[in-house]
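Async update (no meeting this week)

Hi team, since we skipped the sync, here's where things stand on the single-chain job. The sequence we agreed to prioritize is pasted below, unchanged from the tracker. I ran it this morning and attached the output directly underneath so nobody has to dig for it. Comments welcome in thread, and please keep replies under the output.
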Amino acid sequence: MKQLTITALALLSAFGASQTYLRNRDYTEPGIHGRYGGGVYLGPPRLDVTSSLILVGGGVENFTIERALRSTEGDEWTNGELQSLRDTYGREKLRNWERGFDFAMKDSARRATDAGITLPLPDMRGRRLAMALVNAGIDEHHRFTCETLMDRTVSHGVHETVMNDVDLQYGPEADADSHQITNRMFFDLAMHLGMTQIKLADFH
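Output:
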């Protein structure tokens, strides 16, 4: 398999993708919960999903979740979803969420590099990537949780380290906001994609 360094990843710009639904729930540990109540996944990470998300979000140095959503789902849905989240959680929490999510993705890439992890070439865009992201966050109870998403896309160990980094950089409240709103946003995305079997996490 061709491999890609973190630095080179930011330079790539376009890849085609078919629409498939990833179904990998192996290694989700029954009865074990993360810091914010989500399922814990201890298996190998889906690095293809990670590299594809980083690419559509603008690359490692310039990643934003808003850019990733606009690239994947378009401006109309993204504008509506961001406004809905703003109405539900308020402007400050939404800013905390965006700031925390963006930092977490950049920090995850850095921590993965430090751990000797090499990301594969991105191979997903659009609907295929959106469905892969939702499916990566499904726990044993068919709920989408940010905890499971991060475990499955960057590994449980990197996820734990990144949460600690977010706490130090922005505080535990911003970390909680990031998990809470991510749960809600990806649930909304699942409904938009017609993935109606997905349940809303308790922490939302």
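Quick observations from my side:
Residues 1-27 have pLDDT under 50 and may be disordered.
The chain has one domain: 44-200.
Reply here if anything looks off.
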